[in-house]
Design a protein that fits this description.
single chain, 6-stranded mixed beta sheet, 5-stranded mixed beta sheet, 229 residues, 3 helices, alpha/beta, Pectate Lyase C-like, 33% strand
Length: 229
């Protein structure tokens, strides 16, 4: 039997073990399949958090209780919860929106490189995806990322985001005074270093880099759901 047709399937291993089950099957069948899946994981099951994704609509509270007791007794898991996917779907539909949470931020591991301290002149910090700097980027320093760059301090050096061709990336700093910014292949130089200290961000609009105050033009304020960047 192919794995995708089994009544119990492992969907992901991260902060939690996401397990998909067919609740229309008998508890005996589900227990046998759970043993097959959990034996493969070995020590990863100990004190793990398990999320059950029920593949059929209906009230299966008693089944979840029985599965929870079985997994706790046999594999010493810390907790067994039912996925809130159906609740989320219901709320999304009421607003005319739908969101596949399991494939978005809830099950995603971080792609962010976060560093503390300042990037000094002559130093370059490069992140494969997003870069967060808890400090400053000094003149002569360079921050480079495949996605967004967030500087929780002064940006007075060079920032290169969205490499090589992510034009949706942004560059944000609490004190935005870079010598040069680049998003994708778009470059802007000569940012006003005499401007008052304020949180600003750079983005691409109509093929050009524009800089705006973050609190006035928050680009994410209109999103209905949290989205992974």
């Amino acid at each position: 039997m192919k794995d995708e047709k089994r009544p119990v399937r492992l969907k992901g291993v991260g902060d939690s073990l996401w397990v998909s089950i067919d609740p229309t099957q008998s508890i005996e069948t589900l227990k046998k399949e759970l043993i097959t899946v959990f034996q493969r994981l070995g020590h990863l099951t100990i004190q793990s958090k398990v999320v059950l994704d029920l593949e059929a609509e209906g009230n299966y509270d008693s089944l979840v209780v029985e599965v929870r007791k079985f997994l706790k007794d046999k594999y010493n898991v810390a907790s067994v919860l039912e996925s809130d996917k159906k609740k989320t779907k219901s709320k999304a539909s009421s607003k005319g929106k739908s969101q596949d949470w399991n494939k978005n931020w809830k099950s995603r591991r971080s792609d962010v490189l976060m560093i503390a301290g300042r990037i000094r002149s002559g130093q370059r910090i490069k992140a494969r995806r997003h870069l967060v700097v808890l400090g400053d980027v000094n003149p002569g320093g360079e921050a480079m990322a495949g996605g967004d760059i967030i500087v929780l301090g002064s940006l007075k050096g060079k920032a290169v985001a969205g490499q090589p061709d992510n034009h949706d990336a942004i560059i944000l700093a609490l004190d935005f005074k870079p010598t040069q910014v680049q998003i994708g292949m778009n470059v802007a130089v000569g940012i006003d270093t005499d401007a008052p200290q304020t949180a600003e961000f750079a983005r691409i609009e109509d093929g050009n880099i524009v800089v705006e105050e973050y609190m006035q033009s928050n680009p994410f304020a209109k999103l209905h759901w949290p989205q992974a960047r």
